[in-house]
Each structure stands twice: as structure tokens, then as C-alpha cells.
Amino acid sequence: MMKKTNKLMSSSFLVSLSHSITGITCCPPPLASFQFHSHFLLFSTNNSNPNPKPRFPYSSNPTHANLQQLLLEKSKTGFDKLDDALAVFDKMLHRKPLLPVINFNQLLAALVKMKEHSVAVSLFKDMCVQGIPVDLFTFNTVINCFCHLNRVDYAFSLLAGTIKRGFVPNVVTYTTLIRGLISQDNPAEAQLLFTNLIRFKLIQPDVVTYTTIINGLCKRGHISRAVMLFRYMEKKGCQPDTVTYNTLIDCLCKLRSVDQALDLLHEMTKKGIHPDVITYNSLIQGLCDFSRWQDANQLLSEMNTRNISPNVHTFNILVDAYGKEGMINDAEDVIEFMIQRGQHTDVVTYSALMDGYCLRGEVDKALAVLETTMKKRGIVPNIRTYNILINGYCKKLNVDRAIDLFQQLPREGLTPTIETYNTILQGYFLTGRHVDARKFFKEKMMLNKALTLDNFTCSILLHGLCQNRFVVEALSFFDTMLSAGLIPNICIYSTLIDGLSKNGHLEKARSLFDNLPLKGLRPDVKTYTMMIQAYCHDGLLNDANELFLKMEANGCLPNDVIYNTLIRGFFHNKKYNEAGVLMDEMCARGFSADASTASVLLDLLKSQEQNPALLALRKKFLT
Asked: In sequence order, which residues have a C-beta less than 8 Å from that of residue 474 and are 6 or more positions away?
């Protein structure tokens, strides 16, 4: 229903306020991609009548009944073909009297259901040209389309046009804009808009608005802020619903805080808010990630008690979890149970089962699932299915069979992903076929314009080149990737540091390590381990010990590898007392001497039987 401005909220006030609360310019350049000029968006404020008369009257006419019924149905499901929707729009334009605005809104809604957002915007332009009346629902629909097209700037431009046309944006308008900002990775702007909307009392946020913000915070990993907003909405009298709880529960489970997620489940049921299958799927996934099978089974029983039927996703979670644990018989039992109860298995189900077989090294059994079971059930494999098999054969060092599958993909109508290429590249290096690896990279990856190389690609190639002593080539490739705009992560730098140090280029490795803070990166325990091992290998024990002390001061706790590396370094340099102190510290942290450290100590005891410091170490650690 259309809302006109009142004396307290004049059009000019709202337009200026829309600038102040968002900080986003509402007048972008013309939308060339839609051939959509700005005057279609920002309606003239000189028009004293915010609701101009159409070129011809409209009414609800009995002769329109069939078309109106069709529009009502399609607004919920979308048309089967885009041409059908366009044909209906053409009919609507030529009907006299003109159909009501609600029917045009239903047509736009159908296009949104079909994800034809750009077409919806184009038809909105045609409506404006034809003088067909629009209302706030129309504007909200088109604002939503712009957000889906990743053009939030045009959505805000249309917000200004909405206000100039004489409508007061409502909670749906602003919730849509907030969702658009979040989808474009602007959660800070979304939160600022939300805060200012409340500050200026433009809207009373509803549960959808709050849940949208909470979802955005969760996607960014800001769970504490999400929970704070959740409690704030309750304090303000806005009752969270199942979707709100599901959003928080799913985020907590993904952050491995399953017990907190379970607490929220108990909280929502106590408040009379009913969990659904999505709630339980998130929790079951979280519990399976920790191998808490008993708790997962308890939730399945609880679902049965509440008459919540598990869906295919529920069962797929179990198949995947059992497969990853090597419990392949249990995974097969779940699939058999699905079939018995009439639940359709899908490509995800069998891909998870195949992954389980591959993790056990039974790649041929995984292939049999693809070639026999899936084909028998008419389930079409996707690229992930093939990636699992290709990875399985590469791990078994059968790269030629992996290549056969890779070459089969076009015949199956599938396009290899970067994961496919990375797997084969790594497989070549694992089997020592560095010549084939470099050829594959240059011919199949570098020359493939449709392929975007990622950090994992870079890491695989650098590790493979350094491992085969092609350090100069590795550095050259690294510089090329930097020039191409790749932003290396700490894993890539760690790989290069390790490769340089192991190939006699310690100073270059040290330089890369020292410059990490300038790149905005913090070395992790793996990076520290590589540098400390390099220092110890070159006899630079003081440098190794100094870096060991620095890492903890920088908030990175040493692991057992670092302790054992340093202890052996002290042994080799006859600093037995220092080694003893470090061994005490290592044991206090729950680590123990590894086989190499114990072997070095035993060799020293054989050659220096009467050394008091060594005898004390033997008494303490080898008895």
C-alpha cells in the first residue's frame, strides 16, 4: 500500500536524511548496462503530484480474471521461460482498462523468483516510460534487484527516487538495503545504516531486520557482536524467531562452539520457539565434526520426538562424517536406511561415500560407486565427484589414471575447477615428475584465461620447484604472481622460506621472514619452525634461540617440533644444561622428546658416559 509523506517527514527532509544516514552518494552515473537513464530513477521533484495519472485508466475488470490468476500463481513460482514472462508483460501493456499496480508487482516478483533481476529492472523502466503507476512495493522490488546485481549504489539512488516520488521507505526497504550492503562485504556500512535508522527513528526494526544484521555479523565471524545484537533485540521487545536462532546456532557450530549452540537450542525450546530441520542439521554437523556420535544420535531421536523429519541434507551429513572417520560400513548403512524409507539419495550422498573410500585408499571402490551405483540410480556426477576421484588417484601416486579422468570431464559436460588443476599439479610433484608438473602448469593452467590461480596453486608450485632445487625458477614465478596482483598469504611465504633455507639461501629466507610485518602478515608456528630449523641446521644456535624467545613474546606458542629441534641444536653444541632446561619446559607443556632427540641423547651417552649433565638427563628422561 502506498504511503504519502506527512508534514513531519517532508520529501526534502527524507532525501537529505538518506544522504546523512548512509554516507553513500545517491546519484551514480547513468546505468549504461541497462540503458537506463537517471531520470527514470530520480523522479523530478518539480512534479507536484507524486502519483501522476497513467495514460489510460485502470480497474479490476472481470475480463482480466484469467490473467490475474496466472500472475498470482507465477508471482510465487516464477515463469517456466523468460519469453513467457515478457509475453505476459506485453499483454498487460495493451489491456484496457489497465490492470492494477498489484498485477505489475506480481510480474516483477515472478522475475525475481526466476533470478532475472536485470530484466525486472528493464521492465520497471518501461513501466515508468508508459506512465504506469508504481507503489512502494514496486520500488522495494527493484531496490532488491539492484542489490542482487551487486549495484547497491543504484539501490540507494532508487531510495532517493522513492522519497522524491512521495513514498516513505519502510522497514522492508531498509532491510533490503542492509542485506545488499552485507552481500557486498560492507558489514560496517550496514551496521552504521541500521544504527542511524534507529537513531533518527525512521523505522521500527522487525525480526527480519535484526536477523539480517545478525547474519551479516556471523558471516564475518563476529559472533560476539552478533550475540550482543541478539540480546539487544530481545531487550527492545523484538522476539527472535527460528531463523534468528538458526543463524546463530549455525555460526557457533562452524566456529566449533557446539556446546553454546546446544544451549541456544534449549533456550529456544523453553521459549516456545520451534526448531526445524535446519536447526538440527547445523547441530548434527557440529557434533559430527567432533566425533560426538552419541550426542548426534540423541538429537536424531529428539527430531523424531518432535515429528521433524530428517531431510537428504541430514543424512548426507552423517554419510560424510562416517566416511571421514573411515567408518565406511556405517556410511553405507545410512544410505541403505535412506533408500528403505523412500528418501532420495543424490550426488552429494554418493560423492561423500566416494570420499570415504578414497580416504581409506580404496579408490577403485570409489570408482565403482560412480560407474555402477550412481549410473544405476540415474544420478549425474558433478565436478566435485570427479575431483574426489582425481585426488584419490593422485594420493595413490597413480597420476596417469587421474589424467584419464581429467580428460574425460569435457565428454561429461563438466568444466575442471582450480581444485582439479591444483590436485593434478600436486600429484605430479608427489610422484617426482617435476618436468610433467611444470609442463602441465605452463600449458594447461597459465594459458587458460578462464582459470584464476589461487594461493594454493602458488604454494604447490613453489614447494615443488624448491623441493626439486629449482629455486631461481621459484623466485621468478613468485615475482610474476606478485606482478599479476596475487596477494600471498602466510602459507606461501612459509613455503618459500622453507625452500630457500633448505637450498642454501638462508639470507634470502631471513629477509623474507623479517619483512613479513611490512606485508601485514604474522608468522605462524609453522613459519617459526622452518626458520628455527634452518638456523639450527646452519649452526646458528644463538639466532635460533633468540627467535624462539621472540615467538612467544609475539603471541605464538612453540610446538613439540620447535622444542625438539632446539634441544638437538643444544646437544650438538655441547650445551647440555641449556638442553635440560628446555626439556623441562617442553615436558611441562605436555610435549615429549621425539625419536630423533632420544637417539641423539643415547649416542652422546655412549661417547661421554661420565658427563654429569648427560647422566642427569638420562636419569630424568630415559628411565
From this structure: 461, 462, 465, 466, 496, 499
Contact 551, 524 (CB under 8 A): no
pLDDT band per the 50, 70, 90 thresholds, residue 65: confident
Tell me the torsion sign for CA atoms 429, 433, 435, 436: negative
The torsion angle over the Cα atoms of residues 160, 161, 166 and 169, rounded to 10 degrees, is: -50
3-state secondary structure 349-383: HHHHHHHHHHHCCCHHHHHHHHHHHHHHCCCCCCH
Q: Beta strands of 113-235 (E only): which ranges?
A: none
C-alpha 174/C-alpha 24 separation (Å) is 14
45: left (phi over 0), alpha (psi -120 to 50) or beta: alpha
- Helical axes 258-270 vs 242-254, angle rounded to 10°: 170
Residue 117 pLDDT grade (very low, low, confident, very high; cuts 50, 70, 90): very high
Q: Is 543 exposed, middle or buried (0-12, 13-18, 19+ CB in 10 A)?
A: middle
Whether the per-residue pLDDT at 30 is higher than 60: the answer is: no
- DSSP secondary structure string, 519-572? GT----HHHHHHHHHHHHHTT-HHHHHHHHHHHHHTT----HHHHHHHHHHHHH
Please state at what angle helix 541-553 crosses helix 560-572, rounded to 10 degrees.
150
* Tens of pLDDT, residues 339-356: 999 999 999 999 999 999
Is 527 within 8 Å of 513 (Cβ atoms)?
yes
How far, in Å, CA of 574 to CA of 600, rounded?
12
Residue 18 predicted with pLDDT over 60: no
The pLDDT of residue 118 is above 80: yes
Polymer length of the chain? 623
Contacts of 387 (CB under 8 A, 6+ apart): 417, 419, 420, 423
Greatest pairwise CA separation for the chain in angstroms: 110
Residue 606: pLDDT band with limits 50, 70, 90: confident
Three-state SS for 98? Answer: strand
pLDDT at 389 over 70: yes
- Retrieve residue 328's grid coordinates: 565406511
pLDDT value at residue 57: 45
> How far does Cα 106 stand from its chain's mean position?
33
**35 has pLDDT over 80:** no
Pairwise pLDDT comparison (616 vs 54), residue with the higher score: 616
**Least confident stretch, 47-56, 410-419, 448-457:** 47-56
In single-letter form, the type of residue at position 82 comes to L
**4 secondary structure, DSSP code:** B
Q: For residues 314 and 31, what is the distance between their CA atoms, to the nearest angstrom?
A: 44
Give the residue from 504, 568, 495, 571 showing the smallest Cα distance to 530.
495
What's the rounded Cα separation, in Å, for the pair 534 and 531?
A: 5
H-only helix segments in 220-272: 223-235, 242-254, 258-270
Phi, psi of 539 (to 5 degrees): 75, 15
Q: Give Cα separations from 150 to 153, 184, 431, 456 (angstroms).
A: 9, 7, 44, 27
Distance, CA of 471 to CA of 479 (rounded, Å): 12
Residue 13's nearest CA partner among 169, 175, 192 is 169
